[in-house]
User: Fold these one by one.
Assistant:
Number 1:
Amino acid sequence: MPDTELLYARDAYLRAFDAHVQEVTSDGGVILDRTALYPTGGGQPHDLGSLTWDGGAASVSDVRKDGARIVHRVEGDLPPVGTAVHGEIDWPRRYALMRYHTALHSMSGVIYQLYGATVTGGQMYTDRARMDFLLPDLSADRLRQIEERTNELLAEGHPVSIQFLPRAEAFEIPDLIRTRVNLIPESVQEIRVVNIEGVDQQADGGTHVANTREVGQVHITGSENKGKGNKRLEIVLRDG
Ligand SMILES: [Zn+2]
């Protein structure tokens, strides 16, 4: 069975698409030949949406990765194998997650530029996000600096580009080495790179806005000690 073509990986702004049903799993998961629906991964929650076809309709309640294929969990009718379906994405939800994803990468760039601190994890929601990083000393002063510098950069309007690089080439980029590109399994020969120009560059599978101006402004709502020098920041976005 061929891999699912990941339409969202090349065009994050694709809200609707057409595809064919390749398989329906024994527990009712729908596998398409291509999809614009993002599966849970990399701290970004899955999309919601709908599938419609001649004589049927279903809403998509969960999207997960299974190896190189994407499984859509649906509520409603089940499309038979071979059916041509039309997919639509819950766009307000996805766009909020894109803004939060680019916000976290921008902050990650700022924290590295200011303090040489590296990020250890992140989680996005539609109305907030959090990020974990290694920084023993996180004073109120530093929190203010992080917020200010991030907001300056966001307002400057840096373009966000997606590139697919051969593994060897990606391994030469310092930003990618810092964010541990080497942990990507050797079977992956093409590395997807999200470059917030002049701010941050990471190997990443998520969906991002096209320009930092779309993020708006970041507000740090809380910080927490997670032990062993690990810190956690919570943010919300406001329109810029
Ligand atoms: Zn990411």
Note: The two ends are 45 Å apart (CA to CA).
Number 2:
Amino acid sequence: MNISATPLPPYLGFGLGLRVDHYESILESRVADLRSKVNWFEAISENYLVPGGKPLYYLDRVRRDWPVVLHGVSMSIGSKDPLDFDYLKKLKALIARVEPPWVSDHLCFTGVGGKNLHDLLPLPYTEEAIRHVADRVTQVQDFLGRRILLENVSSYITYRSSEIPEWEFLSAVCERADCEILLDVNNIYVSSFNHEFDPRDYLAGVPVARVRQFHLAGHMNHGDYIVDTHDHPVIDPVWDLYAEAVRRFPNVSTMIERDDNIPPLGELIAELEHARHIAARVMAEAA
Ligand SMILES: [Fe+2]
């Protein structure tokens, strides 16, 4: 299949991560009302890979009324271990079921030597790593028959072997593999704080045409470092960076991730409204 000939995914608006805590609230809501506020959902692929059972029941119910994109955490695209085609087969079956507008995972590795650390670990930003990851992305895209999106991760370490900044690495991998980008604005902020770079340089270094989705999230600031916890509301400096991101990458679907300390759905909808207002203001200024 010629991946480069496949159509680009649509703009979806403003969405939320699909979380167990909100299943009932979503299903009890009036669809038209909720769809005007939450235009789409992002489901964690790994939560729906087992056939039968409640997770797929809820996913199917939500999918009836909303676009659902799939977001994975275990592709380990940067690892030296062989690609896990058993996982990819299950993912492909889930894609056939959900028909997501796009599928994403992270630009990272999650383990090596068959050991899974269950964390999203950064890669060294080298030409060798670009070649390695781009080749694996090409294999994954050929297997799935579609482009994937790669997300920038938060990081707490850097490698002495890195030759270029992270944004150049992300851009080079995606250009070479012809894949797309899920830009996590909070992750850029977290890593810029931890590694002391200007987050605006990051935005300026990413190709506009490849960015399909934004993530926003909260984090925990420990004073001299930040941990990306997804358990707090988005902070003002990240909202400011989001405004900058919308200025550079207009009409990119935006979504808020909350994975811990999950509030009622209404609270996240209010936060999503804030994103919507910022994007509208920036777009009006740019018009
Ligand atoms: Fe994210």
Note: The chain has a mean pLDDT of 95.
Number 3:
Amino acid sequence: MTAATDTYLLLRAFCQELARCGMTDACTSPGSRSTPLVLSLAREPGLRAWSHVDERVAGFFALGLAKASGNPVAVACTSGTAAAELAPAVIEAAEARVPLIVLTADRPPELRDVGAGQTIDQLKLYGDAVKRFVELGTHEATPERMRWIRALACRVCWTALDGRPGPVHVNVPLREPLVLDAPLPEVDPVPARSGGRPWVAHPIVPVASEPPPIPIAPTPRTVVVAGRDERDPALGEALAAFAAAARCPLLADPLSGARRGPAAIAHYDALLRDPQLAAELRPELVLRVGDLPTSKPLRAWLAGLDGVEQVTIDAEEAWHDPAGVVTARIAGNPRAVLAALTAEHRDTGDRAWLDRWQAADRAAAEAIAATLGDELSEPRAAAELVAALPPEATLFVASSMPIRDVETFAAAREAPPRLLSNRGANGIDGTVAAALGAASAGDGPVVLHIGDVALAYDLGALLSARRLGLDLTIVLVNNDGGGIFHFLPVAREGSDFERHVATPHGLDFAQAAALFGARHVPVRTPGELRDALAAALGDGVTIIELRTEREANVVLHRRVWDAVAAALS
Ligand SMILES: Cc1ncc(C[n+]2csc(CCOP(=O)(O)OP(=O)(O)O)c2C)c(N)n1
Ligand SMILES: [Mg+2]
């Protein structure tokens, strides 16, 4: 047997086991050293292999696909800086709890640190961002090694999924020759198990559906705060049902899927800017589920609730408490915990207090609508997207103002579209690639709501859309720079601010669309946006562009907050 045959037998078994553990998708990128790895993934019948030119795109694509599907996704690359390009997606996967399996090709030990080309130190390249690092050896395909590699593939998959999901890194040294000189024998030295089972089965048991007794006594003034949780699509509805049953206001970031039901207070961001109302609406108990929402007024309000019980409910080790105000942590599946709490908390909320929240929320909604009028502003675009998309669609929301405007301006809605975002590390990088990954899951149309800087940053991902024939509707809010920074004190720093922080570029995105074979549709009114969306969904790549102005956008937001304050006083 040649060394290449051994390598390919081992890698074929490895990929077969990945598929048997439930993996359905892998991403590849080109290179020489990675040849056996990439070909083995591409030739595994149980896997769809998505080819990307750019490893950063491949990493974020895999991340978006794993987010949308809940399944682990593998991403393979060649040696050298190619492996480093995966770092941002690995970090986001670690922060956002996404099962990602990173397979980096490497030179064998004798070719490291001796001036061989395209060789860097890849050992533990991603540091503590991965749940486990494994360095493969170069082995003969003996029965012992075949069993080992099959078990290893399973271990890698189960590690990515078990407990708090996250990324795993396997570094794969590959010695030349990198291609086979004869067809690979069909029969394996150690075939896979019968019945399609993985070598090591490990059914992931959902965190106890019967949580231990939970010491959270009801109070007349409880609020529920719900943030991003992309993994349990049923949690949003469960949160809304709990809040309605207990009669407690539900302050839900749309990323939680819980901004719905009679107890939803959609405009908490605007309401809690009013110090008097914020003081008046002081709760006795806060139940926190999911990530902490982005809203600064909400964060400040929670941070200032001295002496109030604040309880987080989370199945894993998340510690979302930058202000250090949490008083108890319940470790359990939030849905199961809420179900267990419902009987005791039912009808315990003070009706007058919930009425007060709801009246304020209605007043805020009216003041916002009156201030925004009929113009297609940035806030209006965010509200339209959440309101207009069908429930089977996914809205992928970029960091910066899109995520904030969705939180501030989206109304409550039954059966909203699914929302996804890269909010583990809040990067603007890789957003287009991650949205494309979500689109490749084939689970309804995907719309990406994104600013111009974030789109320009990841424009190269459109190459993958083209090569892979994927559908994505991009709603581009083009204010020629980072509009978010105009809300910060740095905006007073004149031309240095403009050049180095706001970073205007003057790009003509119609030309970018043309380069990648995408449609480009400028829109000027909410009606045009809705029409363009309806025409674009699920039909290739369309960039729907609305032009706004950064300074006017700040003025508009301030007018909204003033109008809400006036309506509340
Ligand atoms: C990888 C990365 N680099 C830098 C930042 C800092 N950052 C946050 S928002 C932003 C500008 C985004 O501009 P744009 O996408 O046009 O959105 P807008 O602010 O105009 O809504 C930048 C550079 C980041 N979040 N992530
Ligand atoms: Mg912008």
Note: Residues 451-453, 479, 481-483 surround magnesium ion (ligand 2) (CB under 6 Å).
